[in-house]
Amino acid sequence: QVQLVESGGGLVQPGGSLRLSCVASRSIFSMFRMGWYRQAPGKQRELVATLTRSEGTNYAGSVKGRFTISRDNAKNTVYLQMNSLKPEDTAVYYCNAQPSLGSNNYWGQGTQVTVSS
């Protein structure tokens, strides 16, 4: 099992930046995949960015060039750096971990990001 705790959300103006953090309860060094997803009101949860052990990074088209996913294995933490934020980025952002190919997915509790002037 893996517990995930997100932080770093908040209210930011359009064009601003935020960095989300996701701390895992166990080592992420050998995790198959870790990622960030988001869910806006009335919409389905969608992929934002993933970091896969054998494939590297993958981004949704809507955030490519603005968001960056990274990891710090020593801190068991995955980050999502979000720049040039837009109102349409407003959502609850969830951290996800998949320890191995085909294993269960684990989710954090989510952190709210609101982009508004």
Description:
It is a single chain. With 117 residues, the chain is an all-beta fold. It has no helices and eleven strands. A hairpin with a 4-residue loop joins strand 7 and strand 8. The N and C termini lie far apart (40 Å). The mean pLDDT is 96.
What topology does this entry show?
Elements: E1 4-7, E2 10-12, E3 18-24, E4 33-39, E5 46-52, E6 56-59, E7 67-72, E8 77-82, E9 91-98, E10 106-107, E11 111-115
Parallel strand pairs: 2-11
Antiparallel strand pairs: 1-3, 3-8, 4-5, 4-9, 5-6, 7-8, 9-10, 9-11
List the secondary-structure elements in sequence, H or E. Answer: EEEEEEEEEEE
What is the residue-mean pLDDT, rounded to a whole number?
Answer: 96
Radius of gyration: 13 Å
Oligomer: single chain
Low-confidence stretches: none
- Summing up helix and strand content along with how strands pair, one would put the structural category as mainly beta
N-to-C span: 40 Å
Strand coverage percent? over 45%
Which overall shape is indicated by the principal axes computed on the Cα atoms?
globular
**Fraction in helix:** under 10%
Q: How many runs of DSSP E, i.e. beta strands?
A: 11
Largest sheet data: 7 strands, mixed
- Per DSSP, the total helix count is 0
Keywords:
0% helix; four-stranded antiparallel sheet; 117 residues; mainly beta
